Amino acid sequence: MDMPTTKPDITKLRVNGQRLWDSLMELAQIGATEKGGVCRLTLTDLDKQGRDLVTRWAREAGMTVTIDKIGNVFMRRAGRSNMPPIMTGSHIDTQPTGGKFDGNYGVLAGIEVVRTLNDHGIETEAPIEVAFWTNEEGSRFVPVMMGSGVFAKAFTLEHAYAATDTEGKTVKGELERIGYIGDQEPGDHPIGAYFETHIEQGPVLEDHDKTIGVVTGVLGIRWYDCVVTGMEAHAGPTPMALRKDALQVATKLMQEVVACAHRHPPHGRGTVGMVQVHPNSRNVIPGSVKFSIDLRNATDALCEAMDADIRAVAAKLSQESGLPIEITPVSAYTAQPFHADCIAAVQKAADTLGYSNMRAVSGAGHDAVYMARLAPAGMIFIPCKDGISHNEIEDAKPEHIEAGCNVLLQAMLERAG
Amino acid sequence: MDMPTTKPDITKLRVNGQRLWDSLMELAQIGATEKGGVCRLTLTDLDKQGRDLVTRWAREAGMTVTIDKIGNVFMRRAGRSNMPPIMTGSHIDTQPTGGKFDGNYGVLAGIEVVRTLNDHGIETEAPIEVAFWTNEEGSRFVPVMMGSGVFAKAFTLEHAYAATDTEGKTVKGELERIGYIGDQEPGDHPIGAYFETHIEQGPVLEDHDKTIGVVTGVLGIRWYDCVVTGMEAHAGPTPMALRKDALQVATKLMQEVVACAHRHPPHGRGTVGMVQVHPNSRNVIPGSVKFSIDLRNATDALCEAMDADIRAVAAKLSQESGLPIEITPVSAYTAQPFHADCIAAVQKAADTLGYSNMRAVSGAGHDAVYMARLAPAGMIFIPCKDGISHNEIEDAKPEHIEAGCNVLLQAMLERAG
């Protein structure tokens, strides 16, 4: 490689936004839907085409490609030293009615960083790696964030291999079929630091008119099922005072799920998304109501506090009404704060580049959550239109796409030296 | 008929409770279910068997039987005069998982009144008639209360004839098949007064430990569908302040449906029985919620006031939340107060007989509602166990069955002279 003799001012480096946009649009052709979205489910033929295209681009940029046993792909640009690489990445699988940016942006932003370094003949101390992780979306096989989860030993390779889709096909069989089952032992791959760029998947940046979200962490999640048991009875002959109306008690608790989030600001979130009323008949007082509770907050301690809060409220409502209320945990994901150094690197890059920015949290899971268990990690958000993702109308502005990639470049260079 | 020479003290007359109970149990054998209930859907072979048995009993009691074109059956005990008859009745069709008493009690109590008059050789001035009305339950053919509805010209004979069951069989065809399509023009049958005994189908009498409910009227009903439209979004990335959570607004309105009933005492009733959440996914903020509203009260003016109340609350909630709320009327049934003279006759009979009693309203529809449009009408309620009806475990106590029939006897005799 032809190196410059004087140290360049890396703060003046900028990525090629048009090239990045063009790559995003080209990748989005694989599995393109009529409504302008992408359907490229993990480990399908289309996923193989996507993987082939991205790894071809990586090789064309002089990167070496390795694959691990769960199909995670690592594309490496050598550094001066053999230090653990500064890594970025995300995923290229999509939801069945997914968009062009979710995941894909994080991977292609990494490729664009490497192309930019190549353009300017910049060598880094640590190697630069771009990864894409298998089956982040979880819409064909569960669990979600499968590749990064196996990599971080959140669950075993065997567990992931055994997962089946609705047709009974396994992850292992499909990996073999598309030729993306590698030799590397998942996790047997040191990481110096990890950054991930992603569309926000929420409305906060757009609402605040900011270009960059400096992500401080990913919210912890607690999922529950709740059942209120009353007594079904005819709506006509049963006077109000003699009713055991399960829905009336349930709706009070549904209100409290939201109130509980407000009692734990600024990041507390409470959602009832699913409701089943029994017998669900117009003139019958509901005998039982089952509904979901989704509580989220920035730390596990706050999630725990929300858990205690909603249980106390439920106990009080049960006592007042005389109706049993049962709350059953369904699943829990720990909160994952990002590393102070990585947050600072993203913040500094955004400030230096002059992009309007704000601190943000991620309410959704990302591969970066698992990477944060293994190495210092951070994320960069850019706005997405109306906060909509997992939808064919998912959209982001070219200038935001470019800005996020510039922040990634600066943050990675700061860490890579 | 061998008449006594002195006028008997009719207030001393009592029905034969055991005979009435035995008849109820015998009729309940036709369509008996394993769980102790009855499945005798209208215009089936089992209904024909039930009709044959009851009319045989009527003929054995010296009554003449006539049938109208919608299959309503009138069993007449002649009076001294040809005045319009004092009529009682109800129905003998049941729900698919019905009980032994709903409807059947009202018909067999009438038969027992006649048997008692026969036992004591008592002649009345007005004739006594016992009717059973076709398809009160409405579980095989709609509309409900079909026979009495056609009789009262609430809808046409043609409309009723054309109703089909799930197999496509028509009311007219089934009436012909079981041989219960008569010559009389429905409604072409004067009535002097109408009484109906019925299990309460609610918990009020049991709760107050009263034997007799002196029914003052039947509640009017207003049915609505309500749709709250928000914006579906991911439960994770969307902070509380930026949500348009349709369920949170809907649950406030569901609470108000009950509050509205309490604001219109003592007979106001408000029920949300049916709820559909869209997309009904655990981690998606609901984008829209559709639910039913059932409002009832003792007069149409009160129903109208509740209608205005809930619409005003919905408008306020919509304004506060910024979410559209649409309330669409589905159907309405007018309130039907009973005739003061009939209420007084039932009250006097219960008092004279020394039965504990209270004023009551009916929250459910009965054939008496349509008869009240044609003649002075009243109803007598007796308690049913736990307020449960339309269920195989429906139960009533023999002493209450007997008491209600004694009240019916006295009230009819007062009106029949």
Automatic annotation (TrEMBL), chains A, B:
Entry keyword Hydrolase: yes
Name assigned to this protein: N-carbamoyl-L-amino-acid hydrolase
Highest taxon of the lineage: Bacteria
Record-listed E.C. numbers: 3.5.1.87
Gene3D superfamilies assigned: 3.30.70.360, Zn peptidases (3.40.630.10)
NCBIfam families: hydantase, PRK09290.1-3, PRK09290.1-5, PRK12891.1
Keywords assigned by UniProt, alphabetized: Hydrolase
Class of enzymatic activity (EC top level): hydrolase
Hydrolase among keywords: yes
Start and end residues of each Peptidase M20 dimerisation domain: 218-316
InterPro entries: Amidase_Cbmase (IPR010158), Bact_exopeptidase_dim_dom (IPR036264), Peptidase_M20 (IPR002933), Peptidase_M20_dimer (IPR011650)
UniProt xrefs under SUPFAM superfamilies: Bacterial exopeptidase dimerisation domain, Zn-dependent exopeptidases
GO molecular function terms noted in the UniProt entry: N-carbamoyl-L-amino-acid hydrolase activity
Pfam families: M20_dimer, Peptidase_M20
Family: Belongs to the peptidase M20 family.
